[in-house]
Amino acid sequence: xxxxxxxxxxxxxxxxxxxxxxxxxxxxxxxxxxxxxxxxxxxxxxxxxxxxxxxxxxxxxxxxxxxxxxxxxxxxxxxxxxxxxxxxxxxxxxxxxxxxxxxxxxxxxxxxxxxxxxxxxxxxxxxxxxxxxxxxxxxxxxxxxxxxxxxxxxxxxxxxxxxxxxxxxxxxxxxxxxxxxxxxxxxxxxxxxxxxxxxxxxxxxxxxxxxxxxxxxxxxxxxxxxxxxxxxxxxxxxxxxxxxxxxxxxxxxxxxxxxxxxxxxxxxxxxxxxxxxxxxxxxxxxxxxxxxxxxxxxxxxxxxxxx
Length: 307
Hints:
This protein is of the alpha+beta class and 307 residues long. It folds into three domains: 14-61, Uridine Diphospho-n-acetylenolpyruvylglucosamine Reductase, domain 2; 69-186, Uridine Diphospho-n-acetylenolpyruvylglucosamine Reductase, domain 3; 191-306, 2-Layer Sandwich (Enolase-like, domain 1). 37% of the residues lie in helices and 23% in strands. It has twelve helices and twelve strands. The chain has helices at residues 21-31, 42-50, 90-95, 97-102, 104-111, 116-121, 124-129, 136-140, 159-168, 246-254, 259-272, 283-306, and strands spanning 14-16, 35-38, 58-61, 71-76, 79-85, 145-149, 154-158, 176-183, 195-202, 210-218, 231-237, 240-244. A hairpin with a 2-residue loop joins strand 11 and strand 12 (240-244). The protein is globular, with a radius of gyration of 21 Å. The N and C termini lie far apart (84 Å). 38% of the residues are buried.
């Protein structure tokens, strides 16, 4: 008797429920482009219902894979990392004490994404894989690394590098995002307690899609010359690309914090970010809003350090 493929394409959509990463990978290899990984599925469902993408003939559900859940800290000599499973729901991300203590910008981002019902189902991994998720700026300022599973083992990739890669190849990932690692050492440099902030600007107060999302992480005690010891700035919003504002960061590392420097930062943010234009907000409005929010937070630091 001829052997049959257990993943042979059915006449109606079918859901596969692998018990571990190995089984999930095997299913994807067998199904190819006809199979799509899914967990919370909130974004995928919205895309299917709106006709933006076709529903695949097979869904590979990752929800039963225990190794993709959990939050824990890993401490080594002089360094600390926060590991977050890709299946961590946005609701759990908004409430987890360890995330709030070590990556408070991410806690705030999770609180501000969509409605409570969506946060209870949607996952952090899915929000990242959308490439425009509101959590991404908060992850970027924590130097997040993506940990992928691809059959023979795991590979690590900086989130910032992956975002740059996806600009050239936006196709859905064939690898499985297992978890995220956040570098929680630097923003509390030399034992000092740093500052983190996440701000979302929407079209109304509650449950709205973002116009602009910004995040920053920085040391709250300047160097002797007035410049910052550590700074990370990131911005996104709507369908705009999410990026690190590396040019503005370098200015803050090189020069003493001052009113004049903040004016340069304001211009730098607008020049570096290629914000999207849509029916809700122009590119120029998004750029101006992002620059205003970030400079306002830096101004607060300047006033507090001079008082």
